[in-house]
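Intended use. Records like the one below are meant for learning the mapping from a protein sequence to its folded structure. Do not use them to infer anything beyond what is encoded.
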Amino acid sequence: MAKRLSLLMGISIFMVVLGHAAGWGQVAMFDWAHRYRPVTSPNFDMIGTPVYYVLAFIRQAATFPVAAFLFVAGFFSAFSARSASPAAIWKSVRARIVTLLIPYPIRSVLVFLYQYILGERLAPWQYLSLFLIWGATGPYYYIPLLCTLTLLAPLLVPLAKTRGRFLVTVSILIQLAFLVVRYLKLAYAGTEIAETLYRFTPDWLFLQWILFFVLGIVAAFHLEEWKAWTARHQRLLVVLLPISLAASILEADLILRMTHVNLFAIPLLGSTMIFALVTIITCTRFLEVPPALAPGLIKLAGNSYGIYLLHYTIMEIFAKLTYHYFPGLLANLWVYIPILFLLGLGIPLLVMELIHRTPLRKVNRYLFG
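Structure written out for the chain above:
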């Protein structure tokens, strides 16, 4: 199981980078179309083209990684607490929080400086809010989210150990309640009701993600039951995986066509939530890769936090440089997206490898977790 989870982590960070590369492709397609065509942006007349569906497939196929990271975090939180005393559990939590938080402010300050250079000015309280809650940029919301759930782990562990089904049931009900709220926000977009709902149920709120973390904890404590359950339902999982992915593409496509609201790569819609759950469960049952690929994926898993912290800003810098100086490249998404992906994955790995070869390797865990 541990090896499969490591492989899942490696695949997940690979898909995070690929999904964000495709996301910048959609930005070029819809929001920056005026840079290479005589149109007004946002422009949606490329909906339905082959490249649109390729991007749709990639973005929806990349909706499971954050859920997978939380599942794995929950699993290993429980695994480390199996025979530990309460004091040892809290010591483990503190160590995990420190590992997460030390690289985070360093990256956040660099992002704020980069944004300041570009002319983006915020009030001090806004910087503090971004740092503590929203994240300095795009995917950074994951760090405060994971820290919150990690702090909750010692409270969830006893319930998962003795009343696992009850805890999962409560988590499902919470997840369904927030799913209803998300659809209400979509149905009433632009109204005061929607704005109020957005204010009180932001995407970073830990309750919107708690099911995935809880499942990881419960799976760790009831591993034999988990294996037996996945074995009984393995055929259903194999059928549901492509169906849920197709449904997620169709749902996001329909929403975009009807409202021009881009919800691709949002893992908190009904279809994408099912796809994320099915993907995670299927991977714990079946995930195997060719021997030649396994070391690379495990290495990606080990470097996943560093890649996560670095890749998005690297892509953003390249995308904005392209927008201003090489707009013709935005029109050729078949070239633009692979470049973004290679930069987003390659530069973090190169930076971490170079630092590993210097005396700075002694503080590597504080730089990249």
